[in-house]
Amino acid sequence: MASSGKHLLADWEIFCPIGPSLAFHVGACIGQFLYVHGGRIDRNSIEASNKLHCLNFDTMIWNEVRVPGSPALSHHACVTIGDRYLLLIGGWDGKARTSKVFVFDTLECKWLYPSAEGFPSDAGLSSHTATLLNNGKVLILGREGPLRMQPDDKIHGNAYMLTGSIESGKFAYSEYSRATESRSGHTTNFIGPRLYVLGGRNDQLLEVHSGYRSGSPDNEKVTESFKKIIRRLKPMEKMPGGRKHHIALESSGAILIHGGETFDGRSKIGKPVGDMFIMTDKPSINFYKIGESKVGRSGHICCVTKDENILIHGGFGHKIIHGDTRWLDFKV
After folding, report:
1. Angstrom distances, CA of residue 318 to CA of 12, 209, 260, 263, 264
2. Residue 77's beta-bridge partner residues?
3. Is 10 in contact with 328 (CB distance < 8 Å)?
4. Which residues contact 228 (CB under 8 A, 6 or more apart)?
5. Do residues 236 and 249 touch, judged by C-beta distance below 8 A?
6. Does residue 153 carry a pLDDT above 50?
7. Distance set, CA 172 to CA 155, 158, 323 (Å)
8. CB contact at 8 A, 134 and 215
9. How far apart are the first and last CA of the chain?
């Protein structure tokens, strides 16, 4: 049985109540800071923000990082390199989808503009995912389409591998597979050697790929918290329904899923869901429903601090774009 109402085994509580109001942005924790970049600031606009903000965990104060040359992007992807660099990949620049790559150096506080070759010239990336592998390469999965906005039936999903280095100032895309399903607004997360692609379409919630290893550190404290919750719940009899623009967070043994827009009619009025699940894959794939959080969001970001606190920031709520930061409070 899932928890409900005020008795959820985990829920999102206020971490910092005021911050930049953004959706479809990117974010990452580096040291004592949460960085967020780009996104949408107006629900009814297609314009992309070029602002970079950071939250100092020591002072709990947000500041805009005013460095010239910040790109305007939304629906982009981000990976962190060496606990120093934010590597931004693709996105919507307000006029077209792009496959360009940008780097922010958090140590020297400056933008870098490496080259990125090999992506089809008439296509771009948006609502895709970027996953850092243990060999330093980045796997790109998801929406690939014409440079300008097109109907969904003309946008097809593919897999690309991004190789290169910040030091060389050069990156290159190579088409990796055409065997992936067409998806956008999905998530990609590891459990061991398997990469799980969740959501981004109204059917086939889950897609599995083997033969990879994550380039991100294990979150041991998070893993133990997930295990405590799972012990209190029964596996669901069937998988959750399809969803998009949710968040998902991996640990060494499970994946946490929250929010998003569902395809079952619950999100048609512009109100994202607060669904929370944990997925495990041993001895077989199972989903456990924590319940429905009071915090319904889509287009938000999720990351883990160095103390392994799980944070979310921003996203669409019911009729508004939020600017608060919340942490996952485990009640067990």
Report:
1. 16, 35, 12, 17, 17
2. 89
3. yes
4. 330, 332
5. no
6. no
7. 22, 16, 35
8. yes
9. 16
The span from the CA of 126 to the CA of 149, in Å, is 10
Instruction: Give the residue among 77, 65, 71 at the shortest CA–CA distance from 106.
Output: 65
Map residue 14 onto helix, strand or coil: strand
Q: Give the predicted TM-score (pTM) of the model.
A: 0.93
Q: Which of 37, 150, 51 is nearest to 86 (CA)?
A: 37
Beta-carbon contacts of 178 under 8 Å, excluding residues fewer than 6 positions away, are: 158, 159
Arithmetic mean of pLDDT, 180-209: 90
In angstroms, the CA 125 to CA 142 distance is 8
Question: Three-state secondary structure along 125-148?
Answer: EEEEEEEEECCCCEEEEEEEEECC
Q: Which helix (H) or strand (E) holds 77?
A: strand 77-81
> Which tokens in the block code for residue 318?
């019911």
Separation of alpha carbons 159 and 177, rounded Å:
5
Cα–Cα distance list, 280 to 43, 155, 233, 243, 273 (Å): 34, 31, 12, 18, 21
Identify any residues that bridge with 86 across adjacent strands, giving them in sequence order.
80, 104
Q: Mapping DSSP to helix (H, G, I), strand (E, B) and coil, where does residue 220 land?
A: helix
Q: 146, 123 in Cβ contact below 8 A?
A: yes
CB–CB of 278/221 below 8 Å? no
Residues linked to residue 159 through DSSP beta bridges, in sequence order: 141, 177
pLDDT, tens only, 240-290 = 999 999 999 999 889 999 999 998 877 666 689 999 999 999 999 999 999
